[in-house]
Write a structure and sequence with these properties.
- The relative contact order is 0.13.
- This protein is α/β, with parallel strands linked by helices and 339 residues long.
- The strands form 2 sheets. Strands 1-4-5-6-7-8-9 form a 7-stranded parallel β-sheet, sandwiched between helices. A two-stranded antiparallel sheet has the order 2-3.
- 48% of the residues lie in helices and 12% in strands.
- It has one domain (25-333): Alpha-Beta Barrel (TIM Barrel).
- This is Methylcobalamin:coenzyme M methyltransferase.
- Pfam families: URO-D.
- Residues 5-336 form the Uroporphyrinogen decarboxylase (URO-D) domain.
- Keywords: Metal-binding, Methanogenesis, Methyltransferase, Transferase, Zinc.
Length: 339
């Protein structure tokens, strides 16, 4: 079989087309302290400076060996754009949302006039352009964003789940607003060079909201993003944290190319639960990649590969203190696997 470039390989893998071997990629957060030390770009500055963001993202390729580059490293830039208060984090901790911005319909109207060129959203788009200009002909350029359900929760805060269960008018209005933003943001990422879009929607977990609420309040809005990307021939991957086993069939209805599952999901069961998407995952980011050894990584990788995982990678965002050697072993295991 013809040897593919990394860009061709991931394109084909996400569309279930024949490939020479498995791509070695990461769809979730990639940065580590060891990468920061190797490339000279550190958190928290790399969250808000496009050059530093691109440099640190590049280290995932040059230091670890991932056959793609991916930004950003957190899921708070979107909430910050809409007036949420953000704790900046530090060299080891990612930023987090500490203050919310929308309590009612009037508040929602106040955030409608936004610009994708503003704040860290604009920085992320600039970083994608930098990476695309340098690597876009050969490497996949992965743009990631928080999904509409979780973004709505960030914006609405502690009241979100109460509003959800009591059927308040703010719920569908905020979900429409967030998903429209997601589509516009994803299109901007593609215009700047992204060829794969990752949707991280942690609070849309089946464990938290169940199947009925997922179908009503998450599925249509995630699908809106996926449909927009399909029109551009851009692949999509959906990651939701926790044990999503019972919700995989519903997640598959979004039409995404890949479903990323965490370590609590049995890969063989997951593969048998979907018809369209490939299953991506699911090496434990804490017990195995952070606290384990390369031998532990190899054992966990073999288990996932033997179970039929579509793409071998981490089960959630990489912990910043993860040793380079462990990530390199995961990459080695992926690269050595032929379908």
């Amino acid at each position: 079989m013809t040897e593919h470039t990394p860009k061709e390989r991931l394109y084909r893998a996400l569309r279930k087309q024949p490939i020479d071997r498995m791509p070695a990629v990461c769809f979730t957060q990639t940065a580590t302290v060891e990468q920061m030390e190797a490339c000279g770009a550190y958190w928290p500055e790399a969250h808000s400076d496009a050059e530093k963001m691109a440099t640190l993202a590049e280290a995932g390729h040059t230091v670890i060996g991932f056959e793609a580059v991916r930004v950003p490293f957190d899921i708070t830039a979107e909430a910050e754009l809409f007036g949420c208060g953000i704790k900046a984090g530090d060299q080891k901790q990612q930023p987090s949302v500490i203050k919310h911005s929308v309590n009612n319909m009037e508040d929602l109207d106040k955030i409608r006039n936004y610009s994708l060129k503003e704040g860290r959203v604009g920085v992320i788009l600039e970083a994608i352009k930098i990476l695309s200009d340098k690597y876009g002909k050969e490497l996949p350029i992965i743009g990631s964003m928080i999904g509409p359900f979780s973004l709505a929760q960030h914006i609405n805060g502690d009241a979100w789940f109460t509003n959800l269960f009591t059927g308040e008018e703010i719920v569908p209005a905020l979900l429409e607003f967030c998903s429209d933003f997601n589509v516009a943001y994803a299109k901007a990422m593609v215009e700047n060079g992204a060829d794969t879009i990752v949707i991280i929607d942690p609070t849309a977990s089946y464990e938290l909201i169940g199947g009925e609420f997922y179908e009503k309040y998450a599925l249509p809005y995630q699908k809106k993003i996926v449909d927009a990307m399909k029109e551009l021939d851009v692949a999509t991957v959906l990651h939701i944290c926790g044990d999503t086993t019972k919700g995989l069939g519903i997640m598959d209805k979004t039409g995404v190319n890949g479903i990323s599952v965490d370590q609590r999901v049995d890969i063989k069961t997951a593969v048998g639960s979907v018809e369209n998407a490939i299953i991506v995952g699911n090496i434990d980011p804490v017990a195995v990649l952070w606290n384990g050894t390369p031998e532990d990584v190899a054992e966990a990788s073999k288990k996932a590969l033997d179970a039929g995982v579509g793409l071998l990678t981490v089960g959630c965002g990489i912990v910043s203190m993860t040793p380079t050697a462990n990530l390199q072993k995961m990459v080695e295991c992926a690269k050595s696997h032929k379908y």
